[in-house]
Every structure is written in C-alpha cells, then in structure tokens.
Design goal:
The protein is an alpha/beta fold. It contains 11 helices and 9 strands. Strand 3, helix 3 and strand 4 form a beta-alpha-beta unit. Bound molecules: iron/sulfur cluster (2 copies).
Length: 364
C-alpha cells in the first residue's frame, strides 16, 4: 500500500491557491514520533510504497535520508515544489521511482500562482537531476485555476525538451476552499468557455500526435481514463485513499487523505495501535457519486470533496460537468484509438499507467 509521510507541514512557498497556513493545534508542524516506530509500522506491510509529502518535504532532507536509509520500501515517491531538488544527493535521488514536481504550465502562469522565479528555478533543478542520473518517472504536477488555459499550459509542459517531463498531470483548484470560487472571476464561464473547450482541443492534439508521431503523449488524465475505456473496467477512487493509500501525519496518526487532518471521517488510527491490514475500506466514497452513471469510470474523483462538499451540492455538480466532458471527449476518440492499436501504430501497453500507485489522482 501507499503511505504518504508528511515530513513537515511547513513550506517555503506561498502559492495563491494554498496559502500555506498550517494550524499547529490540529497537527504539529514537525514530526514528533520516533522513526523506529514508523519503521515498525510500515514494514508490517510486505510491499510498502512511501511518498514523501508536506508542506515541502525537501525542507527536511536529513529526515528523508534517515527514513530512506532505515526503512525498506518497494517504491519511493516524492511530491515536491522542486525548489530544493538540487540539494538531494545522488544516492537518494536515484532511489526514487517517481518524482512529482509542482509546476503550473507556462512561465507566466506558474510564476503568477507560485511566485516570481519559481518556473525558472524548477526547470534548472529538473535539468540538474536528469544530469545527475535520475531515471525515474518525472511528473509535472499542475494546479489548474482561473488563470490557466488548459490547452496552452499542458501543451507547454508536454513539449518541453531538455529538460523534459515524462508525464503531466493536473488537479483542478476546486472544492477545497470555502467560500467557493475564490480564484475564479466567473467559474461557470471559465468551465464553459475556457476549460472544457480546452480539453476538447487537447484531446484532439493528443490523438493527432498518436497518428503523426506514433506515440502516446504522457498526459496522465487521458491515459488513465482511456485505459479504463479500452478495457471496459470498473474503477474505484483513483487516488486510492482509504483503499490502498494512507497518510501518516506528523504526530503519527493515520488518516486517509493527506490534505484533511482536521476531519473526523478521515481518521483511521495511529502507527502504534493500528495494523496496515486494518486500514482499507473504512472510509469510502458516498452520496451522489454512488448513483452517478459514470461512477465506474470516474471512481468518485476525490474523497475530500465527496465528504466535505465545501461548495455545496450545486458547486460539486458543476465540477462533475468537467469530469463528464473529459470522459465524453475520450469516449469520442476511443474507436479511433482502437483502430490505431489494431494497426500497430501504438500499443495498448502505452495506456498501462501508473505502474503502481504513485499518488496521481487521474481524474483532475
Ligand atoms: S462525475 Fe461527479 S458524481 Fe459522478 S462519480 Fe465523479 S465525482 Fe461523483
Ligand atoms: S484526490 Fe482528493 S481524496 Fe484523493 S488524495 Fe487528492 S485531495 Fe485527497
């Protein structure tokens, strides 16, 4: 199973959509448990995947190294803002299977959301880690909000060369703030005039690349959903939280979703008194998703949103329209993708992603 380890709740950036204001009354800012207690808990799982998470985990590199030196894990994952990637020694860098770096698209968009100079620093650092021999999966992890042009910003990131990303993934800046729609001038207009048409253009561009260049570009939401459509499978919540992904907070509590330490529904136990096998399926998607006609493809999108309904049912349903549009657009090209597979232009294996739960949520 996947374990998010919150290495610290502190971050060096103040991104517009986050604010970075952790409340120490909910969880301590820094880890208070003994790493040997963490080891005892995690190693009861025969195949643990460890994802370092924050705050900004690279603010606590010594702790990260101590954990990597002393705990056995099947895979290592890092979610970082990328600013301190140059500080990671080669030995540790090369041990990571997946590194997700926050970057929001074109320079002006990334720097608008994340602070001046962030884009340039992140690109310098990913070039450096490639030069230092990082050969794992490098994912550009975007947050998509009111200033994003989804077509231009994703296209910018997938077309980067030297340094390049292997995959691009995004999460919408929705349903996690209250009052709602804070970073949109007009959310409905943004969805109908910008985001949804941009998804249509991006799906067409993705398909054209398959035809002309015989490759499947690493756009994670498209790959993940197309895999489900091609195989006709049913999916569960794709980030896996509460199913095969759990979070260990700075105090040693175990919660499902890493962004919600303050909610009772999210609390599952602690590293001293809970066994890994007791964790799955204790908190699950409920409410409107269970009767949704595309639940088997969407999986419920986000447990946090499903449980908190911070934008009310009306706002929740507005976001579902983006999921529905995305699924419809991929359904539209599915017969043509199948023909390309049959003709040997691309392979069904190109849609075999992720190879393990590397913390991508698939549904934006
Ligand atoms: S589209 Fe909306 S209602 Fe349907 S499963 Fe996804 S999140 Fe739930
Ligand atoms: S998709 Fe939602 S439930 Fe899953 S990890 Fe992200 S915030 Fe948590």
């Amino acid at each position: 199973m996947l374990y998010f380890i919150i290495l610290t709740r502190v971050c060096n950036l103040r991104c517009l959509y986050c604010g970075n204001d952790p409340d120490p009354r909910i969880e301590p800012l820094e880890i208070t448990y003994d790493i040997w207690d963490l080891k005892r808990f995690v190693e009861k799982d025969p195949e643990p995947i460890i994802a370092f998470y924050g705050g900004e985990p690279l603010l606590r590199i010594n702790l990260l190294e101590e954990i990597m030196d002393n705990i056995k894990a099947r895979h290592w994952v890092l979610q970082t803002n990328g600013i301190f990637l140059d500080r990671l020694e080669e030995k540790y860098l090369k041990s990571f299977d997946t590194i997700l770096v926050s970057i929001d698209g074109r320079p002006e968009i990334t720097n608008y959301y994340r602070g001046l100079g962030t884009y340039e620093r992140v690109l310098e650092n990913i070039k450096l880690i490639r030069e230092r021999g990082f050969e794992g999966d490098l994912i550009a992890r975007m947050t998509v909000s009111g200033k994003t042009d989804i077509f231009l910003d994703v296209k910018h990131l997938v077309e980067l060369k030297d340094p390049n990303f292997d995959h691009v993934h995004w999460q919408l800046d929705v349903l996690w703030d209250s009052p709602p729609y804070q970073r949109y001038d007009d959310f409905d207009a943004w969805v109908s005039k910008s985001y949804n048409p941009g998804i249509t253009r991006l799906v067409n561009y993705w398909y054209e690349k398959m035809v002309k260049e015989e490759k499947v570009l690493g756009i994670i939401p498209f790959i993940g959903i197309m895999k489900t459509l091609l195989r006709g499978e049913r999916t569960n919540l794709r980030c896996g939280v509460g199913i095969n992904a759990f979070t260990i907070t700075t105090s040693g509590r175990i919660i499902a979703c890493p962004i919600a330490p303050e909610f009772e529904w999210n609390f599952l136990g602690d590293i001293w008194n809970t066994e890994p096998e007791e964790l799955p399926w204790r908190v699950t998607i409920s409410g409107p998703c269970l009767s949704c006609d595309i639940y088997h493809i969407c999986g419920g999108r986000c447990l946090f949103a499903n449980k908190t309904m911070l934008w009310g049912i009306e706002g929740f349903r507005k976001v579902c329209q983006t999921v529905r549009h995305l699924v419809n657009e991929l359904e539209r090209i599915k017969p043509r993708v199948e023909r390309l597979i049959d003709a040997g232009v691309i392979s069904e294996k190109d849609f075999d992603y992720p190879p393990f739960n590397n913390s991508v949520e698939i549904i934006p």
